[in-house]
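ok new one. same drill as before - C-alpha cells go in, u give me an amino acid for every spot. 592 of them this time. try not to just spam alanines like last time pls lmao
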C-alpha cells in the first residue's frame, strides 16, 4: 500500500526515489492510504519511494486523477544532504485508483535471464597513461573471463593537471594565443598519439578536441575560470579516455560502450564556492545508476566504460567533479548501487602501503584493512584512495581490493568490514601537510558552558571543516582541513573572519604550515604505539604541538611543524616497520 512519494530529483526528469518497486505494480488506493483533503469527494495521497525509476501512472479513469508537486526544504546534516524535497501528491475521485508502474527497462531487467554485472574495476590515470598501458589494461580485464565487469576510468596520465593549467593560463593569455598553449598541445598530442598507436580513427575524439579548444577560448575571452567551468574543463579528460578505451575494446572484439557521467547526482547548490570542484554523491544516485547500468546491460550486454570523477549537479544539471582522485568514489558508488561482489581499484603500487612511497621508498603493502582504517588513512592524507571512497563500500558491505595494474600478480590490499585485530599494532603512517592550526583559549572562567558549541558554530556558519581536535577545560586546539580550505577563493578573508569571531570569546593563535602525522592501527595498543613514537620523536628533537586520538579507535594524530614532518615520518617508519619491531610485538601477542 503506497502512502507517500518523495522525490529528490526534478520530477520533469522522472528521477524519483521509490520504495520496493521490484515485482508488482503498486496500487495507490486513496480510500486506504491518502488523506481526504479536497472537497467534492476527492481523495489525495502522497507516495513514498526509496529507489529511483521513471514513473508512469495509469488509472481506469485517467481524466479523473490529478498530480501536484510540492516542495519543502530539508537538511540531513549527518549525511551531508540538504535540498528541497519534492512530494508528489496524487488526487483521485472516489473509487478510482491510480496504479504506479515500474518502467519498462526495470521490468525487462528483472525478468531477463541475462547474468548481471559482477564486479567494478577502476583504473586510475597512471594505469591508462599511454596506448601501451591501455592494451595492458585491456588484457588484464580479459584475463578475468568469469567476470562481467563495469569499468571506471580516470583521465589519461596527468591530463587533469594539464587541463587545469591550460584553464588557468587561458584566463590571461588572450584568445589568439589559446591554440599555442603548451598544455593544450600536450593533451591533444597524448590522445591523438594513443589513438594512432591503438589503430583507431582520430575522428573518434575530434569533436571533443574542437569543443575543448572552444571552451578554452571562451575562458580567455571572459578572462574568468569559475569552479563550474573548471569542472566542465577537466571532464574532457575522462570523456576522452573512456571513448578511446571503449573503441579499442570494440576493435579487439570485446563489446564495450562508453558511459558518460552516468546518473551520478551531486550536490552543488550549497553556498560554498568550492562545491563544484568537490561535490558529494546524493542518495538518488544509487537507484539511478543501478537503473541505467542494469538497463543498458540487459538490453545489450556490452562492457560499460564509465567516466570516473564526474557527476551531474542535480539542480543545475551541470558537470561536477568529486574532488581530485574522485574516480575511486565513482567506483565504490557503482559497487554499492549494483550490489556487486567486489570493487577493484587498480593503481601503480602494490596496494595500500605502510607509508607514502615518495617519502619512504621501502614502504610495504598492507595485506588487509578495515573500511574504517582505510577511510582514516585516506582522509588523513594517503593519496592512494579518495577520502570519501570507503563510505559507499562500507554501506554496501562490498570488499574493496587495491591492486597494481603494473604488477597484477601482487596480492594487493583487501579492505573489508572487519579483520583480525588481535595481533595488529600499527598499519600505516600518513602525512597531511599545509594544515592550519588554531589554539583557542577561553577568556572566561573554568566550567563555562557552551564554549565548545560557540566555537564550532562559528566554523559551521562559515562551512569550514575541522580535522583534529584536542580540548582542555579552558582551551581548544584544532586543525582545519586543507583540502577544503585552500581551494576556497576568499580563504584569507575567511580565516581573518574566523579569528575575529573567536576573539570575541577567546584568545586565538593562528598557526599555519603545520602537518598532521597519523598513526593508523590498533588504538587498543595506543600506549605501546605512543611510547615508541615519542621515543623516536624525542631522539629527533621534534616537539609535538598537538595530539588527538579519535573515537574511531584506529587513528592517533600528532601535529608537528611542516618543516619537520617528512623527517619524522621516515624515522617513525623505520623504527616501526624496518627493524622487526612490529613482528616481535605480534609474536609476543600470539604467545600470550
Ligand atoms: N599509503 C600509500 N599507499 C600507497 N600509495 C600511496 C600511499 N600514499 C601515497 N601514495 C601514492 O598514491 C599513488 C597511487 O594513487 P593514485 O595516484 O591516485 O593512483 P591512480 O591515479 O592510479 O588512481 C601511488 O603512486 C603513491 O605514490
Ligand atoms: N582525473 C582525476 C580523477 C581521478 O580519480 O584520477 P586518478 O584515478 O588518476 O587519481 C584526477 O586526476 O583527479
Amino acid at each position: 500500500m503506497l502512502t507517500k512519494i518523495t522525490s529528490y530529483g526534478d520530477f520533469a526528469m522522472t528521477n524519483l526515489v521509490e520504495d520496493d518497486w521490484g515485482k508488482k505494480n503498486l496500487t495507490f488506493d486513496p480510500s486506504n492510504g491518502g488523506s481526504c483533503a479536497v472537497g467534492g469527494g476527492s481523495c489525495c495521497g502522497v507516495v513514498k519511494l526509496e529507489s529511483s525509476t521513471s514513473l508512469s501512472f495509469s488509472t481506469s479513469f485517467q481524466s479523473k486523477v490529478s498530480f501536484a508537486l510540492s516542495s519543502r526544504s530539508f537538511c540531513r546534516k549527518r549525511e551531508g544532504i540538504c535540498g528541497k524535497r519534492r512530494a508528489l501528491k496524487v488526487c483521485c475521485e472516489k473509487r478510482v485508483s491510480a496504479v504506479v508502474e515500474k518502467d519498462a527497462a526495470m521490468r525487462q531487467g528483472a525478468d531477463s535471464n541475462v547474468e548481471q554485472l559482477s564486479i567494478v574495476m577502476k583504473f586510475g590515470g597512471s594505469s591508462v597513461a599511454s596506448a601501451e598501458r591501455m592494451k595492458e589494461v585491456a588484457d588484464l580485464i580479459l584475463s578475468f573471463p568469469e567476470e562481467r565487469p563495469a569499468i571506471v576510468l580516470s583521465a589519461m596520465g596527468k591530463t587533469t593537471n594539464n587541463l587545469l593549467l591550460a584553464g588557468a593560463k587561458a584566463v590571461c593569455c588572450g584568445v589568439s594565443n589559446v591554440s599555442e598553449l603548451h598544455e593544450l598541445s600536450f593533451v591533444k598530442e597524448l590522445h591523438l598519439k594513443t589513438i594512432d598507436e591503438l589503430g583507431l580513427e582520430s575522428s573518434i575524439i575530434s569533436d571533443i578536441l574542437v569543443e575543448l579548444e572552444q571552451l578554452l577560448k571562451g575562458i580567455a575571452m571572459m578572462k574568468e575560470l569559475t569552479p563550474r567551468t573548471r569542472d566542465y574543463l577537466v571532464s574532457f579528460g575522462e570523456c576522452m579516455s573512456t571513448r578511446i578505451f571503449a573503441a579499442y575494446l570494440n576493435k579487439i572484439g570485446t563489446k564495450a560502450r562508453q558511459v558518460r557521467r552516468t546518473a551520478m547526482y551531486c550536490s552543488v547548490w550549497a553556498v560554498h564556492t568550492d562545491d563544484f570542484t568537490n561535490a558529494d554523491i546524493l542518495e538518488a544516485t544509487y537507484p539511478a545508476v543501478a537503473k541505467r547500468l542494469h538497463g543498458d546491460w540487459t538490453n545489450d550486454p556490452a562492457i560499460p566504460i564509465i567516466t570516473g570523477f564526474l557527476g551531474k549537479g542535480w539542480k543545475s544539471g551541470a558537470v561536477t567533479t568529486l574532488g581530485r582522485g574522485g574516480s575511486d568514489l565513482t567506483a565504490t558508488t557503482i559497487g554499492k548501487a549494483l550490489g556487486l561482489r567486489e570493487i577493484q581499484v587498480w593503481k601503480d603500487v602494490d596496494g595500500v602501503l605502510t607509508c607514502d612511497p615518495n617519502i619512504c621508498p621501502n614502504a610495504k603493502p598492507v595485506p588487509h584493512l578495515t573500511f574504517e582504517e582505510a577511510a582514516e588513512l585516506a582522509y588523513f592524507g594517503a593519496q592512494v584512495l579518495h577520502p570519501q571512497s570507503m563510505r559507499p563500500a562500507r554501506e554496501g558491505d562490498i570488499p574493496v581490493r587495491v591492486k597494481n595494474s603494473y604488477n597484477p600478480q601482487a596480492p594487493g590490499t583487501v579492505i573489508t568490514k572487519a579483520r583480525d585485530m588481535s595481533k595488529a599494532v600499527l598499519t600505516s603512517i600518513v602525512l597531511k601537510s599545509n594544515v592550519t592550526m588554531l589554539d583557542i583559549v577561553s577568556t572566561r572562567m573554568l566550567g563555562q558552558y557552551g564554549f565548545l558549541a560557540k566555537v564550532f558554530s562559528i566554523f559551521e556558519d562559515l562551512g569550514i571543516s575541522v580535522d583534529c581536535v584536542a580540548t582542555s577545560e579552558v582551551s581548544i586546539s584544532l586543525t582545519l582541513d586543507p583540502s577544503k580550505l585552500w581551494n576556497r577563493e576568499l580563504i584569507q578573508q575567511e580565516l581573518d573572519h574566523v579569528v575575529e569571531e573567536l576573539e570575541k570569546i577567546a584568545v586565538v593563535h593562528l598557526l599555519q604550515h603545520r602537518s598532521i602525522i597519523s598513526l593508523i592501527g590498533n588504538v587498543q595498543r595506543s600506549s605501546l604505539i605512543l611510547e615508541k613514537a615519542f621515543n623516536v620523536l624525542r631522539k629527533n628533537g621534534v616537539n609535538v604541538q598537538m595530539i588527538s586520538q579519535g573515537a574511531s579507535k584506529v587513528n592517533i594524530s600528532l601535529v608537528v611543524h611542516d618543516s619537520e614532518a617528512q623527517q619524522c615520518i621516515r624515522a617513525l617508519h623505520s623504527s616501526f616497520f624496518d627493524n622487526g619491531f612490529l613482528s616481535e610485538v605480534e609474536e609476543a601477542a600470539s604467545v600470550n
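The longest helix spans residues 227-251. and btw Residues 1-65, 91-111, 269-274 have pLDDT under 50 and may be disordered.
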